[in-house]
Amino acid sequence: MEKLVIEGGKPLSGTIKIHGAKNAALPILAASMMAPGTVTLVNVPDLSDIHVMLDILRALGCQAEQGTDTVRLNTSTAHSSHIPESLMSQMRSSIFLMGPLLARFGRVQVYQPGGCAIGERKIDLHLKGLQALGAEIEESGNTIVCTTNGLKGTEIVLDYPSVGATENIMMAACMAEGMTTISNAAREPEIQDLQNFLNVMGAEIIGAGTDTITIKGVTSLTPCVYRVIPDRIVAGTFMVAAAVTKGNVTLENVNPSHLTSVIHVLKRAGVQITIDGDIMNVSCLTRPRAVERIVTSPHPSFPTDLQSQIMVLLSLADGVSIVKETVFEGRFKHVDELSRMGADIRTDMNSAFIKGVHRLYGATVEATDLRAGAALVLAGLAAHGTTVVEQIHHIDRGYERIEKMLTHLGAQIHRFSPVPTE
Ligand code: UD1
Asked: How far apart, in whole angstroms, are the C-alpha atoms of residue 164 and residue 212?
């Protein structure tokens, strides 16, 4: 198992380009299935989750080539609507293919993605939405088969603004007959990016970014060339990295309007942020201040995907902060690991009470999920001494060679791979 070894205490400085958004690229790759022909995507990150999605698309019969930051995907040869269970179990986002495969083939076979480290993560809203559009769903054990003789537009009110369910329903509805409205839709920037992509291919969708999305069904979509938005969670992670190391970092290829709540919280903590178009400078020369209360909830509120990272900053802040996690029930796994590094954090149900300490200390810690892993790297950068982060395959799901980006900013961080045995 690979691990990251970090010598903490070096202020980060310099400029870094933020890569494309995993959470935008994944549904966009799935949506490409609906347009037979070759789609070219630019600003696609080179991440293990993207590799799994491309493997699934290949298993369905597509031809996929990945370049430095591009993907060329020929979907005209696709012939299967059955996502292999072995690939499905590697990545929950494979459920994004349900809507597109149903639209293209009238059938899709998938497997329950199951629980994961951050919570139960059901797919009931995806299934209810597809059913409302006219899909018949048969569940037998772990297997789910959806079929349709033709999807029909309808009015769907989501019980919760689920990002994935909104995207799945949007994709299926864009080739359904007639109009669909999704109320209480998720408003994340990645949903706007999916709308923009689908519309470039000929779909007729309006409203993404608000809580009501209206989709007029079309009979076909045409492949296109499309640039994916920058990754706001990676940008947010590097903003916190600059702050916790008392550094001065310039981020290029960011969309500040996607980071409003994050900028607001960091400024409350005393972090200096200046913005010039898609360039952002982040610096923090003094000890950060505690932030009385941060509540994670759907966009535009503070993102759950940056909760663990901001907790590292608050662990070092002057005063007591409270973080309430409302999106995922099991998302405090990093707390035990941060405590082992000297953080003073107490949790009660879905709230964490963080009493800032002056110093974190290096330790051997384990990444339990993607963002928890990123938080431990940040803690290691700020800590005195050596930190070893294990189980870093989680981190590779969402950050393109994180140690390379951080080394570029002056961090002392190395990846160690196990020595191959004869
Ligand atoms: C997406 C993001 C993930 C982010 C999350 C919330 C991708 C690939 N992943 O995940 O990084 O943390 O949004 O911003 O885009 N729920 C149900 N039933 C459903 C669907 C969801 O109960 O059918 C619940 C989940 O268990 C969770 C909450 O709704 O508690 C939010 O989930 P959702 O918004 O769907 O997140 P994902 O799309 O899985």
From this structure: 15
Q: Which atom of ligand 1 is nearest to the CA of 120?
A: 26
Tens of pLDDT, residue by residue over 388-416, are 999 999 999 999 999 999 999 999 999 99
Nearest to residue 403, comparing CAs of 413, 392, 395?
413
Q: Which atom of ligand 1 is nearest to the CA of 186?
A: 34
Q: Which residue from 327, 350, 395 has its CB within 8 A of the most atoms of ligand 1, so it is best to mutate?
A: 327
CA distance 103 to 17: 36
Q: How far apart are CA 40 and CA 64, in angstroms?
A: 10
Return the residue whose CA atom lies nearest to atom 15 of ligand 1. 23
Nearest to 43 by CA among 75, 18, 14: 18
- Domains annotated for the chain, with CATH where assigned, are 3-18+230-416 (3.65.10.10), 22-227 (3.65.10.10)
Residues 6+ apart with CB under 8 A from 264: none
Report whether 338 contacts 376 (CB < 8 A): yes
Structure tokens at 179: 């109009």
pLDDT digits (tens, 9 = 90+) for 64-96: 999 999 999 999 999 999 999 999 888 889 999
The rounded Cα 128 to chain-centroid distance in angstroms is 23
* Nearest-angstrom CA–CA distance, 324 and 182: 28
Looking at residue 129, its amino acid is G
Comparing C-alpha atoms, which of 285, 250, 249, 248 is closest to residue 269? 285
Q: Report pTM.
A: 0.97
Kindly report the length of the chain.
422
